[in-house]
Amino acid sequence: MAVQDSMDVLNGKWKISILSSICYYNKRRFSDILTDVEGISNKMLSKELKELETNKLIIRTVLNTQPITVQYELTEHGLTLKTLIKNLTDWGIAHRKKITEQQ
Amino acid sequence: MAVQDSMDVLNGKWKISILSSICYYNKRRFSDILTDVEGISNKMLSKELKELETNKLIIRTVLNTQPITVQYELTEHGLTLKTLIKNLTDWGIAHRKKITEQQ
């Protein structure tokens, strides 16, 4: 099932939130993503970013600042996720409304 | 993050594949979903279906057959997932092509 391929890439608690953060700001530093994505640890963020890199969704740039900063941006392939993330966000809002309405 | 609400509902290895199976056939029996979704166990499918029911995405109907059969279909709210599942499927196909191209 091809839908499973998408979910394998986007699965887990953090990936979509990380991609949304990078997607929203176009370029985003590691430290900024750490604050954007509530509750994620430094170690977990490094692991998730590495997986997203392996899947060709983001690219990593080391900036020659003092101290050194590492920046991430979506690849062309990663950008194709933009609409999907928008749809997921919209659906999330509608779903939350639906569920809270009926409680 | 609203996008996290969507992922919380759709997360895990099986949910999207189960929803795709029900979505594709409109109405689907438990035994059919079991064969549609490769590798899922009877126990896991029951658990996932219960969660989808709690999230108001599917409804369960017991058919008065011999032996009794249980059938599932998407609720109106669940149907709003149709486009999202289609987008996820399309993206999955494009992603697989991208990754296999570069190996």
TrEMBL record, chains A, B:
Cleaved signal peptide residues: none
Domain HTH hxlR-type: 1-100
Claim: Transcription regulation is one of the keywords in the record: yes
Alphabetized Gene3D superfamilies for the sequence: Winged helix-like DNA-binding domain superfamily/Winged helix DNA-binding domain
Coiled coil: none
Transmembrane spans: none
Top-rank taxon: Bacteria
Keywords of the record: DNA-binding, Transcription, Transcription regulation
Keyword DNA-binding applies: yes
PROSITE patterns given in the database record: HTH_HXLR (PS51118)
InterPro entries: HTH_HxlR (IPR002577), WH-like_DNA-bd_sf (IPR036388), WH_DNA-bd_sf (IPR036390)
Protein name as it appears in the record: Helix-turn-helix transcriptional regulator
Lineage: Bacteria, Pseudomonadati, Bacteroidota, Flavobacteriia, Flavobacteriales
